[in-house]
Amino acid sequence: MKYWIYLSALTLGIGIGWLLFHSTSDSLHRHGPFEHELSPTNRTVSRSEPNTAGMRRLILSETEAMDEKVPLDKALEMLSSQRKSPLRVRAFLKSRIQWMTTDQLNQALMNGEIQTRAELQEAIRRLAREDPEGTFNHLEAQHYPMQSMDNIYIVIDGLLQTWADTDAPAVMARLQKMKRGGSQQDMSLRFSDYWAKINPAEAADHFNDLIYLRNMQNQGTMVFTDDAYARRIVQSWQEKDESAMRHYIAALSPGEEKNAFENALKNLKPSNP
Amino acid sequence: MGNISDKTDQGLLQDFSQYGQEADFAELVRRHHASAFAAAYRICGDRTEAQDILQQALIVLARRAGELTRVTCLSAWLHRVVILEARKAQRKSYNRRKRETMAYQIQESSTIGPDALPPIFPEMDMTLNAMSEKDRVVITLHYLENQTFKSIAARLGGNAEAWQKRSIRALQKLADQLKRRGMAVSAVALGAYLTSTRMEAGISPAFLETITRHALEAGSRNAVATAGKAALLLTMKTGIAISLTSGIILAYGWNVAEHVPALFPWTDSSSIASPISPNDAIGIRGNRQQGFTMEMVKTAIAEYDGAEKPEALSESRLRSLMFLVPQKNMEEVLQLLLETKDHARFQDVAGALFGCWAEYDPAAALVHAGNAEDFSYQAKRAVMLTWLNQDAESALAVILEDKSVENRGFLAEFLTYQCEGKPESAAGLVDRVALDWPEADDTLFTLVARLWSRTDGLAAGAWVATCSDEALKNKLLKSMAMDVAKLRGFDGLAIANHIENEKARLEARNTAIYWWGITTAGPSLIPGQSGPVGDLSNGFPPDWTHENIRTFSQAAMVNYSNNLGDLLKIAQTDEQRILIYEGAIKGSGWSNPGAVTAAAEQLPDSFAETAPGKETLKVFIRRWHEMDAHGAESWLSKQTPGPKSQVMREELNREGNK
């Protein structure tokens, strides 16, 4: 009698083992989150492709958190609970974000699955590179729920800066289409500061438009911040190409814009030799 | 073996583990049960539960007696075990208690039983558990076990006076840490309390005998098992379990073996010519040792190094791959990284490698990090972050030996990471660091407070409120109140309420209200839509001042000018209505002056006779005219002559003349 019971347990075990194997391997049989990388239409045939695919499979098989069915916040929880390296958490989540399609990533942001700084930056930069206008529309329509103001600014800065790196005038044009108000000004201030930093010459070319976007202050009174912004442009330009900057200002026709830049020049500290 | 009462704890442990003398174990229990039971009782506040915890702790003692002969202070060790067992018990009973909450509340409201304990009790033991070993030992021996300083000195070395001084310092530290956690208690009161709970928490000799016997039985069962005599104890249950497990392993293993070539195509040379589709890929979790090859790493590093521009996808894959490197290949992979052309490109990859290395052996990884040339900083950072996450106490000991800016940075980064999921643990770590590294405290304290406030503003506010540095505390509370109010209005105000100075508190509240209005006024005004922000649809709270109402209205108009009607609905008096109008006109200058004409019309003429009123009207009409000259002029022409319209007309004329 006893041996019959043991035999039944053994058979049951074999059954469970078989089911277990097939349930865990199913996720790798199906089309994976990396399809966009290896789809027949866009794949680049490379000698190292088997290596790339192999690495991907190996990484996928390391943890359930890499399964695309697992929401990103849950994946973060799973990885964090291992109490291994925090950098492991970051690395694996970065890989997951890189392997997601734009739609999947947008959906994850809309679900509020991404709330940590590193992952938010990664996700928003990728979206901004691939579809800046669409991402801006989602942001403006408040489709991305965020847990804190810091997170909102991570998203705003990530989008504006990544887009500005490739096409700053397009960013400004999009900001001009926004409803007049605090959100527009907030984003404009952040964008125009960044533009002045990366390309002061271009920012100077759009000075009047930018001043209009920046032109309100906290108490609701209207103060044209020409001087403050002119100073920012001039300081950044001085570091990059001081003679071009002086030439540009000298060539401006008389008016408020020229006055603002000349005032900024007066307060400019001499550049380091 | 000598008289049993003369033996030291170590001697008793030694004899018990070697000869299984039950009398030795009973003597250990007699010596330490009172303090252990008192600790359990303080944490759970229930005698029966405390008895269970004590029993579990004694079972652990019986099982691990052989390993404990080198422990300096058994009572301190036992205290820690009690804490761990109490936590386990609390977790187990969590769901049960949740179900019983209603009944408990009813009972609590009618009577307060003998087990009702103030909240300092569990915190005290948790905090004590987090202290350094020497501090824990002296508090446990003197206050919990009632040993004299002379006997402590005789046992652990040093002189009685030094131990006495140490105990005072340790008690003060404990009091300080409790204060940080919101429980103000003096060191003297704490000492008296610790002694008294030991006396009060005694248990009956009969019960003591029972649990001692039980612990011995459980301990001996474990000893037998670990001695490899499991076969003798094979019962029906274990037989079934073994059969079941064997079946699972057999079936699973068979399947895996069958699919190995498909799982790891790179092991097959033919796969290079015809790569398999990812759709054919199958695998099992955590199979890194089988799948990992150095060839794979070499190729990936060479490709990333040779690429014209670093590509995010390749970099992320490489970083993840570093966490699959087996320990024996660590040095080899580091060498590959050191041989790359562009070390700047590989900084994060090297960090990942050292993160993985530290998972295996942080101390060894730290030594290698020092020799990692250009990667040294990233390597040290990765090791310390990992170490702190895996074993904060020993990592902290390393950091405290070198209180450098670099180490403070690593600590700050780790706390930031910890705040993502366990901010209260991060706060505990800051409290711990504050004792040994006060110079780093302000920065780390501020950092954790801010991060914690993002997820639980109220808890973070309560933590900050215990800070003894008034200036730091008030500044921090003000800024936290502002941040929190943006998304959770009332929570922000609750944080500001911790500021004791009235003027500073009112200022912080008004700033928080301003940002609440700017960011989330709209949802707050509509019934059922407020969510976590806070519902204002029933009217302004009674503790809001006139300035608060004006400020909120002004801020609300920046982004929610269309909600002016909702704002007016919540006004309970004419006075409040006027305040809303004033604020609305001011705030609309930011966004949509045309939407608040009702406010300008409804304000009394006397508004235009004050300097701030005049200025507000001027800004209002000027901004509107700039956006929509026709609309502004048309509206103004229809206004009945009076002080308000006069001020606005003059402003437009002045602008026109300019």
Report on this model:
The complex is a heterodimer of chains A (273) and B (658). By secondary structure, chain A is mainly α. Among the domains of chain A are: 62-149; 178-273. Chain A contains 14 helices and no strands. Mean pLDDT of chain A is 84; it is low at 26-47 and 217-222. Helices cover 73% and strands 0% of the residues of chain B. Among the domains of chain B are: 4-105 and 117-231, no CATH class; 237-269; 539-658. The longest helix of chain B is centred in the first third of the chain and has 37 residues, at 74-110. With 658 residues, chain B is an all-alpha fold. Chain B is built from 34 helices and no strands. At the A-B interface, helix 1, helix 2, helix 3, helix 4 and helix 5 of A face helix 11, helix 14, helix 15, helix 17 and helix 19 of B.
- Quaternary structure: heterodimer
Distance N to C terminus of chain B: 107 Å
Query: Which sheet architecture does the biggest sheet of chain B show?
Result: none
Largest interface: A-B, 80 and 95 residues
pLDDT averaged over residues of chain B: 81
The largest sheet of chain A is: none
